[in-house]
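Budget justification aside, the reviewers requested a transparent look at the raw inputs and outputs of the sequence design task funded under Objective 1. We therefore reproduce one unedited record. The lines immediately below are the structure tokens for a 348-residue chain.
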């Protein structure tokens, strides 16, 4: 198990594991300002839907802590600019605007308090979001046990583990709890091109935890399934629409189609902060497109002819009908998702 937490608030700044440096180096990156936090999120020093929600919340605290505003109105104006900066970093994971919404609501609630008290309340809320996420992950991990038999062979994509959350992870949280319970599981990790979160992060963190993991190229998944070597797939999510369509790392949809072809279940694990009831279907989810260089180069070395046009969506949408169940902190939800997820919402 690795030692430093993925992200931590320390006195008046944030320290995070710099995920762009893994697995070669486990080094910490410090953010003192909102601009530094925005850079860390954009460049994927910190990534994963719940983790960027937490990071953006701390980004607001960093952006306002040195404010000399003397009135709520002035502070509100400054907060608006920091909120815009954080919102501009990455568009797909809904956890980010969800966390920002919580901070804005706290500021509003304390509008008659002193500026010092408002700043204190904002830090408290960011820390609450962080701690709550740890507890949500643990519940997801426990709720997912009904899906995992002793001896299960699980395929996962991207990184939905400790490095992507404030706790033990979502998809990988289920695997960590299974391992703690003594279940003998084996994991296949898709390398996850273009940025290799599966190879660099998932393989690394599972090895640190002593969970058997085998790395595969993304395009080996079909071969693996056709050989009968996979029992189920579990992935995380960046945003889940009201009808159960799921945006997750590019390649998740390919995996879902392969699972259907091979009659294998595909489960999605995510906290309620990843649900977006305002969007009726996955068609409305904004999909981030990233720089061509992330596709044309690997580790700084060119892999494609200079100037070739590139299309690089960071996420895709898996339609609800390819998803066997959504594991949340409140239980495992199945189709029809518009009904099961809205029941979950009503229960709060
Ligand atoms: O681009 P990334 O690395 O932020 O993408 C992350 C993913 O797609 C994860 O699967 C998702 O955020 C779930 S993390 C618990």
């Amino acid at each position: 198990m690795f030692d430093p937490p993925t992200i931590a608030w320390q006195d008046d700044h944030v320290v995070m594991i710099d995920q762009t440096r893994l697995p070669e180096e486990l080094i910490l990156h410090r953010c003192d300002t909102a601009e530094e936090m925005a850079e860390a999120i954009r460049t994927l020093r910190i990534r994963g839907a719940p983790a960027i929600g937490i990071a953006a919340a701390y980004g607001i605290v960093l952006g306002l802590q040195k404010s000399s505003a003397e009135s709520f109105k002035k502070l509100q104006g400054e907060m608006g600019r920091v909120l815009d900066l954080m919102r501009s970093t990455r568009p797909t994971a809904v956890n980010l605007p969800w966390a920002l919404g919580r901070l804005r609501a706290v500021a509003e609630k304390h509008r008659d308090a002193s500026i010092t008290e408002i700043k204190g309340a904002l830090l408290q809320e960011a820390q609450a979001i962080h701690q709550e996420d740890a507890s949500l992950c643990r519940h997801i991990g426990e709720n997912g046990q009904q899906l995992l038999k002793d001896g299960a062979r699980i395929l996962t994509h991207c990184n939905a583990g400790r490095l992507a959350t404030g706790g033990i992870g979502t998809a990988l949280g289920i695997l960590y709890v299974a391992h703690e319970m003594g279940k003998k599981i084996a994991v296949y990790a898709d390398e996850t091109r273009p940025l290799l979160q599966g190879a660099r992060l998932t393989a690394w963190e599972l090895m640190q935890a002593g969970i058997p993991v085998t790395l595969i190229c993304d395009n080996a998944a079909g071969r693996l399934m056709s050989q009968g070597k996979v029992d189920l797939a579990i992935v995380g999510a960046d945003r889940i629409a009201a009808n159960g369509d799921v945006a997750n790392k590019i390649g998740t949809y390919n995996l879902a189609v392969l699972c259907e072809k091979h009659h294998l279940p595909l489960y999605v694990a995510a906290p309620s902060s990843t649900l977006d009831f305002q969007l009726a279907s996955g068609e409305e989810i904004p999909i981030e497109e990233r720089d061509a260089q992330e596709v044309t180069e690997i580790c700084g070395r060119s892999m494609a002819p200079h100037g070739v046009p590139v299309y690089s969506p960071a996420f895709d949408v898996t339609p609800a009908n390819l998803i066997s169940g959504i594991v949340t902190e409140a239980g495992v939800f199945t189709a029809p998702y518009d009904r099961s997820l809205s029941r979950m919402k009503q229960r709060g």
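The pocket of MRU is lined by residues 47-50, 93, 158, 160, 164-165, 170, 197, 236-238, 248-249, 314 (CB under 6 Å). The chain has two domains: 7-138, 143-347. Computational costs for records of this kind are itemized in the attached budget.
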